[in-house]
Amino acid sequence: MATREFKDAVESTAGRVLAALSAGGLPASKTAWDMKIELRVPHTMLHLALGLLIAQGRISVRPDGYTYSVEPLQPQTPA
Q1: Phi/psi of residue 70, nearest 5 degrees
Q2: What distance in Å separates the CA atoms of residue 68 and residue 62, rounded to the nearest whole number?
Q3: Domains of the chain, start order
């Protein structure tokens, strides 16, 4: 996979993560394991996508047993 294709795949997965967190119209917390199963993506790709979203300030993660919970963050509006 070329560099551009790889970056596109990570960004696409990040978009799918955000969509999964807001399914049903309300932001929800899900575990990384649940998202891996739901999205059917390799764990490495999921973790790269989560890292991108953390860096962008769009999600937060916290320990949850042997995995971690992922929660969407509300976008900050300028004052």
Answers
A1: -115, 130
A2: 5
A3: 3-72 (1.10.10.10)
Query: One-letter amino acid identity for 35?
Result: M
Which tokens is 19 given? 């969509």
Model confidence pLDDT, tens digit, residues 14-67: 999 999 998 767 678 899 999 999 999 999 999 999 999 999 999 999 999 999
How far are the Cα atoms of 20, 37, 56, 69, 79 from residue 47, in angstroms, in the given order?
A: 15, 13, 14, 12, 32
DSSP string, 2-40: -HHHHHHHHHHHHHHHHHHHTTTSS---EEHHHHHHHHT
Structure tokens at 54: 């953390």
58 touches 72 (CB < 8 A): yes
